[in-house]
TrEMBL record:
Residues 62-174 form the 3-dehydroquinate synthase N-terminal domain. This is 3-dehydroquinate synthase. Its cofactor is NAD(+); Co(2+). It comes from the Bacteria. PANTHER family: 3-DEHYDROQUINATE SYNTHASE. It comes from Sediminicola luteus. CDD domains: DHQS. It holds the Pfam family DHQS_C. Keywords: Cobalt, Lyase, Metal-binding, NAD, Nucleotide-binding, Zinc. Catalyzes the conversion of 3-deoxy-D-arabino-heptulosonate 7-phosphate (DAHP) to dehydroquinate (DHQ). The lineage of its organism: Bacteria, Pseudomonadati, Bacteroidota, Flavobacteriia, Flavobacteriales. Residues 176-317 form the 3-dehydroquinate synthase C-terminal domain. Its EC number is 4.2.3.4. SUPFAM superfamilies: Dehydroquinate synthase-like.
Amino acid sequence: MKSISSDSYAVHFNENAFKALNKHLKGADYSKIFILVDENTHNLCLPQFMAEIEGDYVYEIIEIEAGEIHKNLETCTQVWEAMSELDADRKSLMINLGGGVITDMGGFIASCFKRGIHFINVPTTLLSMVDASVGGKTGIDLGAIKNQIGVINQPQMVLVVSQFLNTLEERQLQSGFAEMLKHGLIKEKKYWEELKLLSNFDTMDEFIYHSVQIKNEVVLQDPTEQNIRKILNFGHTLGHAIESYFLESSSHETLLHGEAIAVGMIMEAFLSKELTGLSEKELEDIKTTFLKRYKKVAFTEEDIQAILGLMKFDKKNSHGNINFVLLESIGNPVIDIKIPNDLYIKAFDYYKD
């Protein structure tokens, strides 16, 4: 499977991934290699990863606790302190072996340590393979507000090895699949139609590859998200607020990223019908597709008001305005749409009904 070249690095797949890594390590002369894992990837992925490394290098394994709740500055500080104690220097390398939390946070940790060391991302979840693999976004959460602190900084390479998906539960696979469905909605109706028919996750390589291609094409046009890259946030303005609210709520089960974004995409599709011309037929298609795959989420009036309050922290906002990505039709998004206040409640009502 041919590698995909981004701005300053490449995404390597399966049989080419470890060949590219070993070639890079052989020529780079790193003083020490730090591998960031959580307890899951330490047990399930690290042995397999290390078995593919050729050559004699100095390694240090740093393990953090799994979960979005630990994607914060406190965890970063603990990792920086560990790196300092283990004599990390500016010629060290950080390899981030894990899902989106590990790759987002690991990239941020590497970008800040001694004003920046090299890092390589090895995404091990479907979500991180099709989302975090491209674009150079690194960062952490501020309290429950997602990705408020971070920088855009590119890795040396990304390795997408689909056999790591064998370590995941069905719920995690479905979470990543929501982002793939989003790629169809914002860029390619034919891809949306193909994904709708997918009944299992046994043969995902070609779909993962195509999702990475779609995201890469968008990012290359707008690396710092000044314009067209914003389309990748369809479903995320409401979805991130929902995810943040459920993350900090003691009375609700935490939602995975894709589960929250699926809700957000249904609601933002409704807003698209109201404001940007999405047809009733395509709206119902979007709603039906997501509700077949994702458990319906219950919202009280109190929940809704709290979620709407969190939207002011969305990173696309400017000058006090909440900016949405909506759809004119499937495959045709529009950016920077402002929503009349009365439509927010109608969007929740549409989802609930």
